[in-house]
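Quick start: load a record and inspect it. Here is Ferredoxin:
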Amino acid sequence: MTFVIGAACVDVLDRACIEECPIDCIFIGDRMAYIQPDECIDCGGCEPACPVEAIYYEDDLPPGQEQFATEAVRFFHEPLPGRVEPLGRPGGAHSVGVLGVDTSCVRDFPV
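Running the structure step on this input writes:
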């Protein structure tokens, strides 16, 4: 299990959660942030830092937001638009920087 960023983050990208992550596993797409599910250590530091309450323990995602857990996995394990290889486990978001792309589900998420 891991923490997941849900719908409330779309088009907000406050980034307060990033400062609280001790292992630098929160990555910035275009419309939202994503927690690397294989690197998250479930410390929970990001959850109270989020001003829009968009971060949930995977089992506690609100009804209708289950897709965001799937999208977090897709963000890291499938090639993103404009990339040939999946992002995988790059070992820290700061070394990668803002990616500027999202999964197709998040890209097309209604405003």
